[in-house]
Amino acid sequence: MAEVNVMGLSQVLSIIAPGGNTPLVLACEVDHNFDRSRAEINADNKCGKNRIPNPNMDASISGTGQVMINPAGGDITTKISEAKLDQLMRSATVFSWVLGPKSGVPAPGDVTYSGQGWFNQLNTAYTTDGVATFDFSITVSGDYTQEIEPAA
Predict the structure, then answer these.
(1) Which of 33, 97, 37, 30 is nearest to 65 (CA)?
(2) How far apart, in whole angstroms, are the C-alpha atoms of residue 98 and residue 115?
(3) Which of 23, 80, 106, 143 meets the CB 3.0–4.6 Å disulfide criterion with 110?
(4) pLDDT higher than threshold 90 for residue 63
(5) Structural domain boundaries of the chain?
(6) Which residue from 73, 81, 72 is spatially nearest to 132, judged by alpha carbons?
(7) 30-34, 77-81, 113-117: which has the highest mean pLDDT?
């Protein structure tokens, strides 16, 4: 069986706002990173060096998107906009997130991650020579799940 590369364009971040059931894709996402780290515990002693893994793991999601508006007024309702991210950030809201296929339907071999988190950073840039963008960072709360779609 041959391996294939995963194209970054095919993977997106979706957010399920409190009170909602449907994952909404981040509006015009440019990129995202899913970072995981585990610190080590220094257990050195007179017998020698000894490093052991910390039982706690840190995870975060960061990325960039483009600021989109609804020219008819009101917020965008089919995607998660920068304005909605700002509301979640200001209210310190914990929400559910999904990193997975853009289609929302995993194909055999696709990996989907999901969990809960909150925004710990949101920066919006309005440049002279381009579209407005925002950078964000989400702290993952607790553990997350990983699902690998089985073969058909």
Answers:
(1) 30
(2) 7
(3) 106
(4) yes
(5) 11-36+46-148
(6) 81
(7) 113-117
Q: What is the pLDDT of residues 82-92, one digit of tens each?
A: 988 999 999 99
CATH class of 11-36+46-148: mainly beta
64: exposed, middle or buried (Cβ count in 10 Å: 0-12, 13-18, 19+): middle
Kindly state the average pLDDT of the residues 25-39.
89
What gap in Å lies between CA 67 and CA 75, rounded to an integer?
12
Position 121 scores a pLDDT of 96
Integer Cα distance of 82 and 11 in angstroms: 19
Select from 120, 119, 121, 117 the least CA-distant residue to 145: 117
Contact 41, 54 (CB under 8 A): yes
Check whether 94 has a pLDDT greater than 90. yes
Question: Which amino acid would we find at residue 69?
Answer: I
Which secondary-structure segment (H or E) carries 86? helix 82-90
Identify the residue whose tokens are 């017998």.
47
Q: Are 134 and 85 in contact (CB under 8 A)?
A: yes
